[in-house]
TrEMBL record:
Gene3D superfamilies: 3.40.50.450. This is UPF0398 protein FD22_GL000249. InterPro entries: YspA. Belongs to the UPF0398 family.
Length: 188
């Protein structure tokens, strides 16, 4: 199985630093979902390079390769100069992560010039994956809403799995994390 991991951008969740406690919870939830999918024959985690869920998902999958060496990772970018307008720190993080995945390419070999490139990227991701894990909650649609809608339209005509991680799931993970801390367990 090839799984598309996507969802909210970091700013949509108010995560502006790698040290924020909520990022530990988000990554723990992504980790649990990726492991669950791996146990159902997941072979590839495929994501984009957006700051937020996409990069976190690839970071988690890359870390999981220590325990699941057969797991493969790919970063697919929507256009050739993706991230070029980001600050230096974010550009460096993108390039470091890109160097750690098993495969990376841009769907369009041209620099950004049209919203059609983004639609083509979405279509590419749908047709080159078997399902999606999306960090998304209907109470806070954001940009991810358009991705979820596209997946649901695609599902109407194709066998395609959609797994949503919502705010309730994150709250459950946070509660479990806090309980583990109170009981003296060390989180990863």
């Amino acid at each position: 199985m090839r799984l598309w991991v996507t969802g909210y951008r970091s700013y949509e969740l108010g995560v502006f630093s790698a040290n924020e406690p909520k990022l530990k919870i988000i990554k723990a939830a992504l980790r649990a979902e990726i492991i669950a999918h791996f146990e159902q024959h997941l072979a590839w985690v495929i994501s984009g390079g957006q700051l937020g869920t996409e990069q976190w998902g690839l970071e988690v999958a890359t870390e999981l390769k220590k325990d699941y060496p057969e797991l493969q990772t790919a970063m697919m970018l929507s256009f050739a100069d993706f991230g070029k307008n980001w600050n230096e720190t974010n550009q460096t993080a993108l390039e470091v992560l890109r160097s750690q995945v098993d495969f990376s390419a841009a769907v369009s070999d041209k620099p950004y010039h049209s919203p059609k490139q983004l639609r083509n990227y979405q279509e590419f991701m749908l047709t080159h994956t078997d399902g999606a894990l999306v960090l998304y909650d209907e109470t806070a649609p954001g940009k991810t809403h358009y991705t979820v809608e596209a997946i649901q339209r695609y599902q109407a005509q194709h066998d395609y799995e959609l797994s949503l991680l919502d705010f309730d799931d994150l709250q459950d993970m946070a509660n479990n994390y806090q309980e583990d801390q109170e009981n003296g367990f060390q989180a990863e």
